[in-house]
């Protein structure tokens, strides 16, 4: 979730630092395990030679795993965080993927690629666009004919408290979320509902990694953990979908 919606309450430099440290042990910045990430990417990349665009790529982990799975694919990522993009470049070089990855430091909502992507990724960063439907609209605008979108966003598993809405935003329940996507002209061809283990593992890593690596941010880690355990753990879920345009 790339530091989540709560990140908007922090200055950009502090937000970038906290996000990088908090995701050090869980580089997929969303509540998904490795097996789920691989399964989603395999369904999203049926040919293996696609051009991929990540709108809000953060440290680039989705793109790096996609390139590792699809040796003939190319990718580009967009993010406003210079530190996150520098991390992505270092990781790409270490994994031998740098020649197939291009990164852009700019607002994902204003980015137009030179080459229409066959796959658009936007997992845990729909808030950059103002929500799920605006993110899908941005993806549709640049997507190549016959392309796919891999999008991930939160939903309410049960009625949230006002405090949970304040922290995570105005989400819908799971059926309504899927209905909203299909009514917008998309066909789900695959999906993953994050398990309780994936959701908890993400939060334990977020809070623990930050506390361990930045003792000066212990109060931030503690606040996040308390919000998770006391406010939204029992009502928040996360859905990731592979979509194709209808018609």
Automatic annotation (TrEMBL):
- Would you say which domain of life the source belongs to? Bacteria
Q: Which GO terms describe its molecular function?
A: methyltransferase activity
Q: Name one GO biological process term.
A: methylation
Q: Is the Transferase keyword given for this protein?
A: yes
Annotated keywords: Methyltransferase, Transferase
Domain Methyltransferase intervals: 52-147
Record's SUPFAM superfamilies? S-adenosyl-L-methionine-dependent methyltransferases
Record's PANTHER family? METHYLTRANSFERASE, SAM-DEPENDENT METHYLTRANSFERASE
Protein name, please? SAM-dependent methyltransferase
Query: Which species?
Result: Amycolatopsis deserti
